[in-house]
Design brief:
heterodimer, A: 570 residues, alpha+beta, 20 helices, 20 strands, globular, B: 341 residues, mainly alpha, 13 helices
Chain lengths: 570, 341
């Protein structure tokens, strides 16, 4: 056979092989055997680190919470704490919290084990917490209130090995002390009520010392103490969980769960609509969720989430700028700035945002403390109204010297690269609302997230959009970082808000062990927020899940802990 | 030693030596661009705010407070000692991050290049031998459309038709969620499933490759069709082809032995470079089909200003480009002796 003919034949053979493979694949897929008993959950979330000493993102935390038991956890569907690895919640009444509020005694359950059979006890608890402090990973600052930790973190700044070693030795001696095999005593440097909430957060969970040495992070490692173990793990693609036989609690509903990661919301939607997955959770586009809601072949569920979105005003004043406290003075500082902030608070239209940007899949928010969280009050609704009050806004703008011929000109900044595609519609809704006063001219502008963060902390923005997912699930985390000057938060958010009396009330609420007194103080803080308006709360994100009718047991927690172990598929 | 062998050896040695300054230049540009670009690699990974102590600690550990020239030389030293560093974002070694994403990129690259080559060379040759006739016009139209079609749109359309409407092929991903993937040996599902003797897994992996490789392959084939056609026309009109015909050599033999062989030299060069380019990741195709490959890795690394990850990816990509370029040059030097003289 001649060369040319042989090549032609080769090409034909290759094409036939492709067709056969494609046909074979289609045939097998079309006539695939009944699916194995596995719950398949689709998501667009990605993991960063499974090491509790370094995990600081939602999805890594959620995998940790399904594979590692926490010291405390939440009653499903509520923000009420309940014991997990601990035998009881420490309180003043049971002696878990000392009368001065500075010492916490934690009693672990007996006979707890990791998946490899090693014991979970007071020694491993102390080891885990000391490791978090020593490694000083992303969430380590949450343990700053433990005696000696603050000084150790400060010593790290010196970069002096002796100073650091001494500070760490002091911390380990005074911070967490082993009382007996299942009991530790934790000393705080000052009263801090949110400490109990921290016991339900991943940073305080107990790790296996055999697998987690205290000299480095282990982002890929999970040694389970919870309902599931991570049996197969393909980074950024697929996570297979199987029941942990050594878990002390109730066995999970499904023996096997596979979590599949999709890179886009469109893929997640298609995977759900073609039946590839049983559950789609985080994050479908709002219009897609609305479309699923009217689809009789699937079920949908919505619930509150702890994620809030808000507007930030850069309040850097001339005096503060001159003193070097902030980069440059803006129109939103001083007395006239207060008028402008209030005017824009009056004019903002939350309903338009919910409708035009989110297809009504979010809820309007009238405080920095979200609905469902302890102490929440709708202060912006009572002060500025549930819907835009254009007349009030115009009155304030007039007082500030603006008119229909001399309009307030401002640029509203936003960042779709961090908050998603709907962000432009949010910005447009605010522009519409503010320009409805006929006394404001708004220019919209955007930056990519990394650049956005630099620009706002450098004081380049005057008014911009931000969001918040709490570090720990306590109302304190919605006020202290935002409104207390010492938190460093106002400089990092880029608003430079400073009010001494606000700082005092925030400190008092953090120290208050009495819930009634604390609620009262949180009320005062929120009233101050509405009066000073450094931020305008806009909406609270809702969790949205779509699932097959054969799926049951999904609970949407207000804290956004998505429990795989309560879900079953028939 | 024959003169031709000696000249080829000298040529290869020269090209290998030139690889070093090429790589250093590439690394230097990457280093400078990253430092000039706005955004702080450490604070970016935090959410809306970050703990200043932790940010400071990480920056110190990464040596970001050191003078730039020290950072630069440390970077070069690490690269040439095989240390690509640790990702700021994930705290995983960059080499692990790259190796976890390489299998998806390799599978997509080979399968899409296969489609692009078969379609591109086949149709280009077909059109080139029927110049200015109806098949030529049709093929040129195909080439123009395929080359200019937006790849993300085309991928979505293929998914909509073959995965959603017809249900013949999977929507996205590399493997069905309800099947257990084969034990990881190479990371390539197609190879690993064969090594495990798991035929359903192999078929599943191939089925997941069809739509992404068709999407990317068809778009690339548009370019290959055009350059193949032009070179076939050029070769078939050349003097040596005319001389072969004048000697009475049969047309088929003239075409395959003299025309096509010479026409494919520039085509192979272009395909080789495209091949290297694909190894850096096809970000749009990977995104549309949820392939977690190198393209998405680099995209995320840039988004978070993850210096070690970006630098690691550039090192990998630079070395790959240089090696493939060298390979192409050597092949061309073999084929066309004028190149090495």
């Amino acid at each position: 056979m001649r060369t040319g003919s042989r090549r032609l034949l080769a090409i034909v053979v290759v094409v036939v092989v492709i067709l056969l493979l494609g046909g074979g694949a289609a045939y097998i897929l079309l006539t695939a055997p009944a699916p194995a008993k596995v719950l398949v959950i689709g998501t667009t979330d990605d993991e960063i680190s499974f090491d509790p000493a370094d995990a600081y993102d939602y999805f890594s935390g959620n995998i940790i919470q399904n594979t590692m038991a926490m010291l405390l956890t939440y009653v499903p569907g509520t923000t009420n704490l309940t014991p997990d690895l601990l035998g009881e919640i420490p309180t003043l009444a049971n002696g878990g919290i000392s009368a001065d509020g500075l010492n916490y005694t934690l009693h672990l359950r007996a006979n707890l084990k990791f998946e490899d059979g090693r014991a979970i006890n007071s020694t491993t608890l102390k080891y885990s917490w000391d490791r978090v402090v020593k490694l000083n990973g992303l969430p380590a600052f949450l343990l700053d209130y433990i005696s000696g930790a603050h000084e150790y973190f400060g010593a790290l700044q010196t970069k002096d090995a002796t100073v650091i070693a001494n500070a760490y030795a002091n911390y380990t001696a005074q911070g967490v002390k082993i009382v007996d095999g299942t009991t530790v005593k934790v000393a705080l440097r000052q009263k801090w009520s949110p400490f109990v909430s921290l016991l339900a957060f991943t940073v305080t969970t107990i790790v296996n010392p055999k697998s987690f040495t205290n000299d480095r992070f282990y982002p890929n490692v999970v040694v389970s103490s919870g309902p599931y173990r991570l049996s197969t793990y393909l980074p950024h693609q697929r996570y297979e969980l199987t029941a942990n036989p050594n878990y002390y609690g109730t066995a999970p509903k499904m023996n096997r769960v596979t979590i599949v990661r999709y890179t886009t919301s469109v893929d997640l939607k298609l995977a759900m609509s073609t039946g590839v997955i049983d559950v789609a959770y985080r994050s479908l586009l709002p219009p897609d969720f609305s479309s699923f809601a009217s689809n009789p072949n699937v079920k949908t569920l919505q619930g509150a989430s702890p994620v809030i979105r808000y507007l930030v005003f850069n309040m850097c004043s001339s005096a503060d700028a001159a003193a070097g406290k902030c980069p440059r003075a803006t129109i939103f500082s001083d007395a006239s700035g207060t008028l402008l902030r209030k005017a824009l608070a009056y004019a903002s239209n939350r309903t338009d945002i919910a409708t035009s940007a989110y297809s009504n899949t979010v809820s309007p928010l009238y405080s920095l403390i979200p609905e469902g969280m302890f102490g929440h009050e709708d202060v912006f609704k009572t002060t500025y109204g549930a819907s835009p009050n254009i007349a009030a806004a115009q009155s304030l703008l007039t007082q500030a010297g603006y008119s229909t011929t001399n309009k307030l000109s401002l640029t509203l900044w936003y960042t779709p690269s961090h908050y998603g595609d709907p962000e432009i519609f949010v910005a447009q809704a605010l522009k519409r609302a503010w320009e409805a006063t006929n006394m404001v001219a708004v220019t919209l502008n955007e930056k990519e997230w990394a650049d956005y963060k630099v620009a706002r902390t450098a004081g380049q923005f005057e008014v911009f959009l931000l969001g918040w997912f709490p570090d720990y699930f306590d109302s304190d985390d919605y006020v202290f970082p935002f409104l207390h000057w010492a938190s460093g938060g106002s400089a990092q958010f880029g608003d430079w808000y400073h009010n001494d009396s606000m700082d005092t009330i925030i400190e008092a609420q953090a120290a208050a062990a009495d819930p009634v007194q604390r609620a009262q103080l949180l009320g005062q803080i929120q009233q101050g927020l509405a009066a000073d308006v450094p931020y305008v709360p806009l909406w609270q994100t809702n969790q949205a899940v779509v699932f097959k009718p054969t799926v049951s047991g999904i609970v949407l927690d207000p804290i956004q802990f998505f429990r795989y172990f309560t879900i079953s598929v028939s | 030693m024959p003169r031709s062998t000696a000249s080829l050896r000298a040529y290869v040695i020269t090209r290998v030596i030139l690889m070093v300054p090429m790589l250093v230049l590439l690394l230097t540009f990457t280093f400078i661009i990253l430092r000039v670009a706005p955004g702080d690699p450490v604070s970016t990974i935090f959410g809306e705010r970050g703990n200043p102590v932790v940010i400071d600690r990480i920056k110190t550990e990464l040596g970001l407070y050191d003078p730039l020239y020290i950072q630069y030389f440390r970077y070069l030293r690490d690269v040439f000692t095989g240390n690509m560093g640790t990702s700021i974002l994930t705290n995983r070694p960059v080499i692990d991050e790259i190796s976890s994403r390489m299998p998806a990129t390799i599978e997509l690259t080979f399968s899409s290049m296969f489609v692009a080559s078969v379609l591109g060379i086949g149709l280009g040759t077909f059109a080139g031998t029927r110049r200015d006739r109806l098949p030529d016009f049709a093929t040129r139209l195909y080439g123009a459309v395929a080359y200019n079609i937006p790849i993300f749109w085309f991928g979505l359309i293929l998914k909509l038709v073959f995965a959603v409407w017809l249900g013949w092929l999977p929507v996205s991903g590399r493997f069905s969620p309800r099947l257990s993937p084969p034990p990881t040996v190479t990371g390539l599902y197609t190879i690993d499933s064969l090594l495990a003797g798991n035929l359903p897994a192999f078929v599943d992996a191939v089925a997941h490759l069809i739509l992404p490789s068709l999407t990317l392959g068809i778009v690339l084939s548009g370019f290959f069709v055009r350059i193949t056609r032009v070179n076939v026309i050029h070769a078939m009109g050349s003097d040596y082809v005319e001389a072969a015909r004048a000697r009475g050599i049969p047309d088929r033999s003239v075409f395959f032995r003299h025309g096509l062989k010479n026409a494919l030299v520039p085509v192979v060069t272009t395909m080789g470079l495209t091949f290297a380019l694909l190894f850096s990741g096809a970000i749009l195709t990977e995104t549309v089909f949820s392939f977690e490959g190198m393209g998405r890795f680099v995209y995320l690394a840039i988004s978070y200003r993850d210096y070690p990850a970006i630098q690691g990816a550039v090192v990998y990509y630079g070395i790959l480009m240089v090696i493939i370029s060298l390979g192409i040059d050597i092949v061309n030097a073999f084929v066309d002796p004028r190149i090495r003289y």
